[in-house]
Design goal:
The chain is an all-beta fold. The protein has a domain of 45 residues. It contains no helices and five strands. A three-stranded antiparallel beta sheet has the order 1-2-3, with no helix packed on it. Strands 4-5 form a two-stranded antiparallel ribbon. Strand 4 and strand 5 form a beta hairpin. The N and C termini lie far apart (39 Å).
């Protein structure tokens, strides 16, 4: 039997801190069962690139993690 495993990385803008940084979450799905957790890193949501699921390719964005 094969297992289907997918991962998604995203930010939760609704949980921004006082510095307007949003927490980064990872969601792992195994055969339809989901588990989601915060990875302990924050990023300025204005610099988050939704297409690549990471801070935009800006030299300053790496400093904001």
């Amino acid at each position: 039997m094969k297992n289907k495993i997918t991962t998604h990385i995203n930010i939760k803008e609704a949980r921004k801190d006082k510095n307007s940084k949003a927490p980064i979450y990872i969601r792992i799905t195994v055969n339809g069962e989901r588990a989601e957790m915060q990875i302990g890193k924050f990023v300025n949501s204005a610099l988050w690139d939704q297409d690549i699921k990471a801070p935009s390719n800006n030299s300053d964005s790496k400093k904001l993690l």
